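Supplementary Text 2. Reproducibility record for the structural model of the 434-residue chain.

All settings were left at their defaults, and a single model was retained for analysis rather than an ensemble. We include the record here because the model underlies the residue-level annotations in Supplementary Table 4.
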Amino acid sequence: MKRISKNVSNGLSKLSKEHALQWAQQFDEVIFLESNKDTQAEQEKYGEVEAILAIGAHDILSADSKGAFDKLKHFRQKHKDFLFGYLSYDLKNDTEALSSNNPDHLDFPELFFFQPKKVLLWKNETVEFLYLEPYQHEVEKDTQAISQLTLRSDIPSKPCQISSRLSKQDYFDKVTNVLKHIHRGDIYEVNYCQEFYAESCEINTIDVYQKLNQISQAPFASYIKLRDQFLLCASPERFVKKQNNKIIVQPIKGTARRLNDKIEDKKLAQSLVNDPKERAENIMIVDLIRNDLSKNAVKGSVHVEELCKVYSFKQVHQLISTIVCTVDKDDNDVDIIKNLFPMGSMTGAPKISAMKIIEEEEETKRGLYSGAVGYFSPEGNFDFNVVIRSILYNASKKYASFSVGSAITSLSVIENEYEECLLKAKALKEALIG
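Retained model, structure tokens:
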């Protein structure tokens, strides 16, 4: 089905992203992806747009993990158009002989994609309206509605009581078990995560998302609404991008806090670059991704563009590596993603052994956390983030959840890993409770 394009100048910000996101709440399906390009240009050298908003489903794919990638492949073949959606971590059960048996308190579909009726794309002081042909007559009406909308807060958030799924001692015991596996040689590294949650929690999802985004200003922020289920995400990490026949993967491994003193802050960033433990965990994941990319890469095309480069965000310094390759033009998009999924930065190495240990030692089903959100374009490209630094919310159950983790290696000091988790949780707590 043909998509009609119309460009509208946004020089006076009458079509602001904030207004458009609030206007979009009338739809059951909403996905908003924001690069924060004005504040994160250096971090996002492969960025192409400032933001993109997909609303209203013309067609939907919602599935559990069984046969999920084949279903997505068929959906992609059916619609050679924009498709927006997510892959939950538990699609690991479709790529390997694994299972997910831990409690799920959120009940999100394990895979969800939709062909949007309407797409708004912000780029270079312009908003491009990309509407499927049957809805093209609504462009003028929607433009007017967004530009005239008055921002308001219909549902004020109520204070949420945040609890940890693990006590500090429980965390120490769990990580001790993980370290035993490492010392036995079962794995080299595993990303171990813990959940924080709030029950009887009522939040204004737009307000919380905007607070989280303001705190973090991350290059892969996203907001999802699927009727009563929401993702509020301030991710600094790209999972995978396809740009013509080039594949780009940018794992994060290595974290240090930011300091107010500029000189000391710079010293801390330099210390992160030289930290043997932080570099080791990053390099192990780089090797894992190089191996995963080789399944589709043109021979000899896999290479590391950046290794353990420090990128500084508002809350933390991170070590990010960039691994790229070239693929044949006939390679299937979904197969490329499947061969990389789940992302090595959220599992560990070797990947299958790490995922088994994650299932044994973590207390809750990861679900969309440590999965990926993004889109396929009509031109055959795609771009997906890693779902971290994120709040998941089921409005019907009044249940909010966020998880944080760190990479456990043989050099890990458990107290330091625990403190890293609390550092990552800080912005999420601030956004939820102020």
